[in-house]
Amino acid sequence: MDKYGLIGYPLGHSFSISYFNQKFQDENIDAVYENYEIPSIEELVEVLGSNLELKGLNVTIPYKEKVIPFLDSITPEARAIGAVNVIRVTHEGRKIKLKGYNSDVIGFTKSIEPMIDKKWHKKALILGTGGASKAIDYGLRNLGLETVFVSRYERPDTIQYKSITPEVVKEYNVIVNCTPVGMYPKTEECPLLPYEAMDSHTILYDLIYNPDETLFMKRGAKYGAQTKNGLEMLLLQAFASWEFWHETK
User: Fold this and answer.
1) Sheet holding 54-59, edge to edge
2) In terms of pLDDT, which residue wins out, 155 or 124?
3) Is 248 exposed, middle or buried (0-12, 13-18, 19+ CB in 10 A)?
4) Is 64 labeled as catalytic in the residue annotation?
5) CB-based contacts of 122: which residues, under 8 Å, 6+ apart?
6) Could you report the per-residue pLDDT of 181-215, keeping only the tens digit for each?
7) Mind listing the pLDDT tens digit for each residue in 81-130?
8) Looking at 3, 55, 64, 66, which residue is catalytic?
9) Whole-model pTM?
10) In three state form, how does the secondary structure of the chain look?
11) What mean pLDDT is reported for the chain?
């Protein structure tokens, strides 16, 4: 039986494990998907060594960047982003070969593209600076938008929340939340932004999908903003993962 899995730490609720095991059941695929909660990336070697049936892995926080030195090859896109969230595992004799991909960018770009109107949407704010935010930045720039990262801290090439004025929100009217702020169970929290400056040309995209509508989305929608959560992106990522694991080349 083939195995697939997810590495990360900690692993709470996982979309991937339920999605893939349901897929295997529905399509009569002789495979299983398991979570591998590893407190350090060095333990990836043990996971691979004790699960020789592994054909592919997904990678989540905090290992999307830390896993790269363990890989034999990486796609140009994943290298440009600087983060990997899919690994194809192949066996050449006794040797295990690992190839890294990024499906975040595919899922996100396909999901947000129908919302983008080139006439109105030229600049975007990316809330957060973690592994996912790099893929979001890559995707937005591929769609022709100028991007700025927003951080709580003073960091190079970022602005802080306190600097986001109503004028900034009017200019950077695509805002993507790549932080866990507002995620269940802390659903009463949201990024600190001047929501009252938003209107029907504002797009608020939240990578969070639990709850369905975050406070970030609700507060923007109150002023007419278009909103979307991260569920479709997750589904599109999962489709892409399966494609990467079964590439013929």
Assistant:
1) 31-37, 2-8, 54-59, 86-92, 95-101, 73-74
2) 124
3) exposed
4) yes
5) 144, 145, 146
6) 999 999 999 999 999 999 999 999 999 999 999 99
7) 999 999 999 998 889 999 999 999 999 999 999 999 999 999 999 999 98
8) 64
9) 0.90
10) CEEEEEEECCCCCCHHHHHHHHHHHHCCCCEEEEEEECCCHHHHHHHHHHCCCEEEEEECCCCCCCCHHHCCEECHHHHHHCCCCEEEEEEECCEEEEEEECCHHHHHHHHHHHHCCCCCCCEEEEECCCHHHHHHHHHHHHCCCEEEEEECCCCCCEEEHHHCCHHHHHHCCEEEECCCCCCCCCCCCCCCCCHHHCCCCCEEEECCCCCCCCHHHHHHHCCCCEEECCHHHHHHHHHHHHHHHCCCC
11) 95
Regarding beta strands 73-74 and 174-177, do their DSSP bridges make them parallel or antiparallel, or are they unpaired?
Answer: unpaired
